[in-house]
Each structure stands twice: as structure tokens, then as C-alpha cells.
Amino acid sequence: MKTSTLILTLLFFNSSLILAQFMSWLFIYINPFAMVGGELFLFLSYHVFKIIKEVRDVFNVDFKL
To answer: Which domain of life is it from (predicted)?
Structure first.
């Protein structure tokens, strides 16, 4: 990886993290219940995809999502 690519990647991640933090703050300020619902949705979707991945690894079954 070139140095310029590395610097651009770091700048992109840094700006996206700052934007995500600002947007989550704004979203919490507007509607805290929606933020909790979003976190629950992300939590559940993470575990569902983790279980699907483990099933695929164990049984070598292809899921078309």
C-alpha cells in the first residue's frame, strides 16, 4: 500500500467516525427510543449473521441472501 493511499484511508475513516459520532448524538437528541431500537436491530442482525456463518461453516451449505 502506498503512503498516499494509507493517508487517504486514515482520513476517510477518521472523518466517517466523526460523522457517525455526530449523527448518533443528533439522533439521540431527537429520539432516544429510536436509537435504542437501532442498536437492538444491529445487535440482533449481527448475531443472526454470525449463526448463519457458523452453520455454513459446519454443514457447507450455501445460503443465498
So the answer is: Bacteria
Report the run of H or E that residue 32 belongs to, with start and end. helix 32-59
Q: What are the grid coordinates assigned to 32, written together?
A: 432516544
Residue 52 neighbours by CB distance under 10 Å: 13
- Look at the pTM and tell me if it is higher than 0.70: no
Q: How far apart are CA 26 and CA 18, in angstroms?
A: 12
The whole-angstrom separation of Cα 27 and Cα 32 is 7
Tell me how crowded residue 16 is: count the other CB atoms within 10 A of its CB: 10
* pLDDT recorded at residue 51: 85
